[in-house]
Design a protein that fits this description.
Distance between the termini: 78 Å
Largest sheet: 5 strands, parallel
Number of strands: 29
Shape: flat
Number of helices: 17
Radius of gyration: 31 Å
Structural class: alpha/beta
Low-confidence stretches: 106-114
Strand order of the largest sheet: 4-3-2-8-9
Strand content: 15-25%
Length: about 575
């Protein structure tokens, strides 16, 4: 349908667009990694008893059907099915592995101390888990925006005819579909995780949580040390990768670089075929029908590119498209239908992008959300922002973004020097109260990007603003509490990339050999704090002013002189 719509345009731009979109090969993962689900067809239905009894017989094609009622007046209900009752229910898991715990008793509420908390599957079917869950409660038991595979929330039918019809339609569909959910199923593993790049935690210091906050499926978790992604819960929406500033999490189906290269190739082919004034419209596969309908009224210079999910690409891809000569980037989606978390990630990423554009003096809607209802009124920009970059950009997503921003700033009407950004944006610097800094290097030890690092040959602290993602670990780790984050964007690319001196001071020299070995302020601070400690009385306090080699030598000399000595290393 989309192809026939594209071919319906016979003007130069329309022909060039159809040739570019249909004639450019999109490279994809040939053998993507997968995860496997195994389902035996053991179904659990949760809801009001009356509704449960009405639908239970419709699923006889499944291996087993267990009913769990949530309304209070059901204990005496007569039925051929075993009917369990609880108002305290937790459901975790995915297709083939739903762990269902509930409190079963006279009242069976969370407040009933006599109720027994139990694994319902173990009681009902003699297994550890259910394979499929049909949730007919009003609000749903699993509190996630995008439920796991095998969990179907149809809602509760109210008294209204419209509500009853909606629930009946969903159930009719599931009656046909659920028998097919028996067997072994493979699903792509949508992400890659590189813990070495992660800014979530270091040395028990908490840092960035952007990916966890961005997941609408509850697939990401933290044990306080590292991020973990459950591939069975992941639904591939890509918001975690878009929100991650270090690319510790990256989308894998396809790789973001493959997507950007495809965008570049399509635009290059479009120009080669004589196309002019391109506008790029990015959309998720689920919106193909809406895009096809919109193309009938949009200008033929609007080039559409489908993504697995709209949120799988972010600010670096959008600005790269502008650098390749696109006049405007449209993000097409039915925002009223997308989960709030995905909407929040898109809104946040878009706000940062539009802030950069306005700070540069350009129109904010050069990158914007596109409402399908506005297709007939759409007016394209007549000119590109800069002379197109002919070669596809490479590097990390931050490197690509900074390259485009530098190019845009060269011809910027505003020529900004420094811009404010949102507090949660991964751009900014740090300040240090140097009078109280002891150069202990705790901040350097936890910095995930080496934005903060030591001078090396003398006591001192350096900072590279371009590498700072504002994770906050340096601020938390500082024992003297002298480091503060400052969100913002420095448009002076040379200063942004350079080593900036944060603090420097003379080195303390070893009182034994004269070798510089530590910041003088640190030695002074330790001496003042430990001089009354029992382990640092007499000559022992002198060792704080020695380098490591001389300190060890001094200890062993004392032990040789007095073998019974309790001298401590």
């Amino acid at each position: 349908m989309l192809k026939s719509t594209l071919n319906a345009f016979t003007d130069i731009n329309g022909v060039a667009r159809a040739t570019a979109i249909t004639g450019t090969v999109e490279l994809a993962n040939l053998i993507p990694p997968t995860v496997t689900y195994e389902s035996r067809g053991n179904l659990l239905i949760i809801g009001d008893a009356e509704q449960l009894l009405q639908v239970a017989d419709q699923f006889v094609a499944l291996n087993s059907v267990t009913l769990l009622a949530t309304d209070a007046n059901t204990c005496d209900t007569k039925t051929s099915h075993t009917l369990y009752y609880s108002q305290a229910i937790t459901v975790k898991g995915y297709l083939g592995a739903f762990d269902v715990h509930c409190r079963i008793g006279h009242d069976a509420t969370a407040l009933d101390i006599n109720a027994l908390e139990t694994n319902l599957a173990k009681i009902a079917i003699g297994r550890q888990c259910f394979d499929i869950v049909l949730d007919m409660t009003a609000t749903g038991v699993m509190n996630v925006e995008i439920p796991a595979a095998g969990y179907y929330a149809v809602g509760q039918a109210s008294a209204s005819q419209a509500s009853k019809k909606r629930v009946a339609e969903k159930l009719a569909t599931l009656v046909d579909e659920l028998p097919a959910m028996i067997g072994t199923f493979d699903k792509p593993k949508y992400f890659r995780l590189n813990p070495d790049l992660c800014a979530h935690s270091s040395r028990s210091v908490k840092g960035c949580d952007r990916c966890i906050d961005a997941c609408p499926a509850g697939a990401l978790s933290s044990d306080g040390i590292a991020i973990a992604i459950d591939p069975y819960l992941c639904q591939g929406v890509g918001t975690c990768a878009t929100a991650c500033p270090t690319e510790a999490i990256s989308y894998a189906l396809p790789d973001p670089q493959i997507t950007q290269n495809f965008v570049h190739s399509v635009l290059a082919r479009y120009k080669q075929e004589g196309g002019q004034s391109p506008t790029l419209l990015l959309y998720g596969d689920r919106d193909t029908a809406a895009v096809t309908k919109a193309l009938a009224t949009l200008p033929s210079s609007v080039i559409t590119i489908a993504l697995e999910e709209l949120a799988t690409v972010g600010i670096d891809t959008w600005f790269s498209a502008l650098a390749y000569g696109v006049h405007q980037v449209l993000l097409a989606t039915n925002t009223q239908y997308i989960p709030a978390t995905i909407d929040a990630v898109l809104t946040n990423e878009l706000a940062i992008a539009q802030n950069f554009l306005t700070e540069l003096g350009y129109d904010a809607d050069r990158i914007c959300l596109f409402d399908f209802a506005d297709s007939a009124n759409f007016e394209a920009y007549e000119a590109a922002l800069i002379t197109p970059i002919e070669t596809a950009l490479t590097g990390t997503k931050r490197e690509k973004l900074f390259t485009v921003l530098e190019a845009l700033n060269q011809t910027s009407p505003a020529q900004p020097t420094h811009s404010a950004v949102a507090a949660n944006a991964p751009y900014g610097s740090v300040t240090c109260k140097t009078d109280d800094c002891t150069l202990c290097m705790s901040c350097v030890a936890v910095c995930p990007t080496r934005a903060l690092h030591a001078i090396g040959d003398r006591p001192g602290l350096l900072f590279v603003e371009q590498d700072c993602i504002q994770c906050g670990m340096c601020e938390t780790a500082c024992p003297e509490k002298v480091i503060t984050l400052e969100a913002g964007f420095n448009w002076d690319w040379q200063a942004r990339k350079a080593d900036a001196l944060i603090h420097e001071e003379p080195a303390a020299c070893c009182i034994s050999c004269g070798k510089p070995f530590a910041p003088a302020s640190m030695v002074k601070m330790l001496t003042e704090k430990l001089q009354r400690h029992s382990h640092f009385q007499g000559e022992a306090i002198r060792r704080l002013s020695m380098c490591e080699d001389c300190r060890v030598r001094d200890i062993f000399e004392k032990m040789e002189q007095d073998p019974q000595s309790q001298t401590r290393v």
